[in-house]
Amino acid sequence: MPARQPLKNHHQEKRLFLARVVILVVVVALLFGILSARLGHLQVASYSHFSTLSQNNRVRLEALPPPRGLIFDRNGVVLAENRPAYQLEITPEQVEDMEDTLERLAQVVNLEEMHIERFRRMLRGKRPFQAVPLKLNLSDEELANFAVNRHRFPGVDVEARVARHYPQGASLAHVLGYVGRIDERELARIDTRRYAGTSHIGKLGVERYYEDELHGQVGFQKVEVNAQGRTLRVLEREPATPGRDLVLSLDVRLQRAAEEILDGYAGAIVAMDPRNGEVLAMVSMPSFDPNLFVHGIPRSVFQELRTHRRQPLFNRALSGQYPPGSTLKPVVGLAGLEHGITTAERIMYTRGYYTLPNDSRRYRDWRYHGAVDLDRAIAQSSDVYFYDLGHKMGIDRMSEFLGLFGLGQRTGIDSTGERQGLLPTREWKRATHNQPWYPGETLITAIGQGYMLTTPLQLASVTSTLAMRGERVRPHLLRGRIQGEGGELTIDESQYLPPVQVSRPEFWDQVLVPMENTMHRPRGTAYNTAGRDAAYRIAGKTGTSQVFGLGEDEEYDEEQLALHLHDHALFIGYAPAEDPRIAVAVIVEHGGSGGRVAAPMARKLMDYYLLEMDS
Amino acid sequence: MFHTAAAEIGLGRQILRALHLDLPLLGGIILLLSLGFVVLYSASGENMDMLHRQGVRVALAFGVLMLLAQIPHHHLRQWSPWVYLVGVVLLILVMFFGEVGKGAQRWLDLGLFRFQPSEFMKLAVPMMVAWYFADRPLPPRLRELMVAGVVVAIPAALIAQQPDLGTALLVTGAGLLVIFLAGIRWRVLLGLGVLALSAAPLLWHFMQDYQRRRVLTLLNPESDPLGAGYHIIQSKIAIGSGGLYGKGWLNGTQSQLEFLPERSTDFIFAVYAEEFGLLGVLLLLALYLFVILRGLAIAVRAQDTYARLLAGSLSLTFFIYVFVNTGMVIGLLPVVGVPLPLFSYGGTSLVTLMAAFGILMSINSHRRLLAR
């Protein structure tokens, strides 16, 4: 059936159309109204909000890391500096074929798997125009090699960056410590704003202790950036304040001399000026090259250092704790005098051993001394005399007196890793071993054995106190700071501690003269090896501390004992005796006899300091 | 003097009439295009190459406008079904042989130039629907509405699956506008509205992932500040920081420092708003409104149903362009690829738009000829 086709009513259709257009015009007007309202809201009502956002978009705050303060020795020799380290960088967007480039680069510079791995890791998360470091510290040879071939490597550049460098290398590793990349623990500790733009931080030693001063004050600059983060221009700039330059009391020449003297041994030498506590040399052997740590030490090298039998990373001067052995005797002798237990005149007839009443155990001497007074007891190092002294004094009075010299406490030197040693007391024994103090332990404490432990620095400090007849000063490495426009040196004041006071001043002579006799009297323990031909007077004391406990009837036979069971050789001393300018403590691990090994080392160092260096 | 000036004006009018051009519409278009060039110069980073290329496109588009203005619209009406049919066939061809660009299959490579059939449908669909209604009594009956609906739905579906949501939206809009102008009854419209709303979840189901993401980021652009929300956030910053007076031509930091993505194409409005402020924006909207109203005036004065419906639809499709683009740039609507008409860099939609204006001018001009 055909559909009925109604007629079109043109007039009505036109009216209908017009009505629809009017409706749509209203809708259009309405929607334009909405658009305008929204735009008004964005551009007028929220203007300041979006204006700020736009400003934040465009302006970026960049940190200007401060140059780290330099470190000098007392004569102005540079110990730690900032020098350009040339690093190889690749800008990804300029490289056509990364794999090919890396492959060809490996023929020009020494690239290890480690470098490429790290490079790939850093490549992610970087924008294509940002250079990514490939190798951090190019050698001069690599630098030259690359320079010649540079045209073959578009997008590869050598960038000079400032990196910490220790020109003295291993000589000062234990003193200065080193800087290294800021790790997560440090990140939590530091004010990250102050370290904006800084990648390294003092890890150990002076670098760590004076981190605050060495670091300086970060600067900032406002730069305009585009959406890719490319810097277009600098808008505002607040320069960084460089870190403070420090001058140490150390003398590199003496340090080097001490290092040479100790070469081949494991041990430590600390030399200080007894008058003001300035540390002149502080050597711990073996050592390591601190520069290794600045650019990130390869794992294998670090493992080797860490597991080395002689522990090169261990700072013996501050962290090594050794029984002081007979070097303690002058102090114990002084305690005896002060407590009226002995006098300089008293003579004791000794056998080769000592026994306590009601005890069959024999406390052996290292040799038979016969009749000894305090002078011979110190100069010839009679153990029996001091066993007797200790027994009569008792551990309480002895500990208290030794404590006056700072034993069992940190000296408070301006470095890191210092240990406090161990000054045993009755209470300590009770607290740590839950045992009473046995009288026999007093005897061996009196000759610096048993529980007693000291650090080389403590021994040097004790030696200074002896040299200065009780005057105590805190040992320190910092001599002063370079300050002000003209770069004048401001000397750091020495910090004097409560002195050791004895009731009669001659007590000092009664232990110090025997120390001179140790060196200069034919029967002194260091006469043949160190004191005999000295051009100046030395006061010293040798020590040989047991590592291996011998049974009471056993003889110590060096040849039959493994090296690591050999005695430690020790020596403390100062010179010139009448006007002390240098106090030295020497410890040679497993060196054997203090008189034979440690004393000549100290003598050499003193010779160098007093005779050669001054001239 | 007065006499000769009047004569000159008269001569100018005669020339325009001879060329079948409408002065107000042409003036509005030229003003918009000129302003577009000014903004494009800034948005492109003072890239004369881009301006040059755009100039060539504008010249070409003007050619198309002139050409269509010369064709009496009763010819267009006769051709309408064929134009539509060819268009649908091309869309199907695109589906199988089209080139892929930006994740969508939209282009047909014709050797000499690339051609986007979906663009063609922006004209073909309203032409076809207007043709369908032209001889039938209006308002249309339900059966006719359904036929018209199918006429719109086929190309819209073909385009949407490419996927090109923006063009599909404009094509559908153009077709639906014809239906609305034809006088669809309100109760039918209401019923369809309810139906559309209930179909929304279904639509959601068929949307591509990126399209859903766009809708979601519209609701909360900050949820993905570096991804999909980046466009809207940066665009709002650009517009908002323009303030009342703008940062000045070539001084928009958001656009000059390249924070604003797509700044010479879809987001050119943000560049304009940043540099010329709210005052400049209101001027621009007024210009657009003028062009739209002029087009509607032509439609209202048109003498037959086909011309009326087509002119009305084309004018309002132009409005949809403006509204969807600015709505998207200021964060009112989801990011769909609709350019700002006569402003955005690019030739495809420009040619279509100018063709539509050509048709409008033809309708305007040939009405008079018929009246004589």
Automatic annotation (TrEMBL), chain A:
<keyword id="KW-1003">Cell membrane</keyword>
<keyword id="KW-0472">Membrane</keyword>
<dbReference type="InterPro" id="IPR001460">
    <property type="entry name" value="PCN-bd_Tpept"/>
</dbReference>
<feature type="domain" description="Penicillin-binding protein dimerisation">
    <location>
        <begin position="64"/>
        <end position="234"/>
    </location>
</feature>
<comment type="similarity">
    <text>Belongs to the transpeptidase family. MrdA subfamily.</text>
</comment>
<keyword id="KW-0812">Transmembrane</keyword>
<dbReference type="GO" id="GO:0071972">
    <property type="term" value="F:peptidoglycan L,D-transpeptidase activity"/>
</dbReference>
<dbReference type="GO" id="GO:0009002">
    <property type="term" value="F:serine-type D-Ala-D-Ala carboxypeptidase activity"/>
</dbReference>
<dbReference type="GO" id="GO:0071555">
    <property type="term" value="P:cell wall organization"/>
</dbReference>
<feature type="transmembrane region" description="Helical">
    <location>
        <begin position="21"/>
        <end position="40"/>
    </location>
</feature>
<dbReference type="GO" id="GO:0008360">
    <property type="term" value="P:regulation of cell shape"/>
</dbReference>
<dbReference type="InterPro" id="IPR017790">
    <property type="entry name" value="Penicillin-binding_protein_2"/>
</dbReference>
<dbReference type="InterPro" id="IPR005311">
    <property type="entry name" value="PBP_dimer"/>
</dbReference>
<dbReference type="InterPro" id="IPR036138">
    <property type="entry name" value="PBP_dimer_sf"/>
</dbReference>
<dbReference type="Pfam" id="PF03717">
    <property type="entry name" value="PBP_dimer"/>
</dbReference>
<dbReference type="GO" id="GO:0008658">
    <property type="term" value="F:penicillin binding"/>
</dbReference>
<feature type="active site" description="Acyl-ester intermediate">
    <location>
        <position position="326"/>
    </location>
</feature>
<feature type="domain" description="Penicillin-binding protein transpeptidase">
    <location>
        <begin position="267"/>
        <end position="607"/>
    </location>
</feature>
<comment type="function">
    <text>Catalyzes cross-linking of the peptidoglycan cell wall.</text>
</comment>
<keyword id="KW-0997">Cell inner membrane</keyword>
<dbReference type="GO" id="GO:0006508">
    <property type="term" value="P:proteolysis"/>
</dbReference>
<dbReference type="GO" id="GO:0009252">
    <property type="term" value="P:peptidoglycan biosynthetic process"/>
</dbReference>
<keyword id="KW-0573">Peptidoglycan synthesis</keyword>
<keyword id="KW-0961">Cell wall biogenesis/degradation</keyword>
<keyword id="KW-0378">Hydrolase</keyword>
<keyword id="KW-0121">Carboxypeptidase</keyword>
<keyword id="KW-0133">Cell shape</keyword>
<protein>
    <recommendedName>
        <fullName>Peptidoglycan D,D-transpeptidase MrdA</fullName>
        <ecNumber>3.4.16.4</ecNumber>
    </recommendedName>
</protein>
<dbReference type="InterPro" id="IPR050515">
    <property type="entry name" value="Beta-lactam/transpept"/>
</dbReference>
<keyword id="KW-0645">Protease</keyword>
<dbReference type="Pfam" id="PF00905">
    <property type="entry name" value="Transpeptidase"/>
</dbReference>
<comment type="pathway">
    <text>Cell wall biogenesis; peptidoglycan biosynthesis.</text>
</comment>
<dbReference type="GO" id="GO:0005886">
    <property type="term" value="C:plasma membrane"/>
</dbReference>
<keyword id="KW-1133">Transmembrane helix</keyword>
<dbReference type="InterPro" id="IPR012338">
    <property type="entry name" value="Beta-lactam/transpept-like"/>
</dbReference>
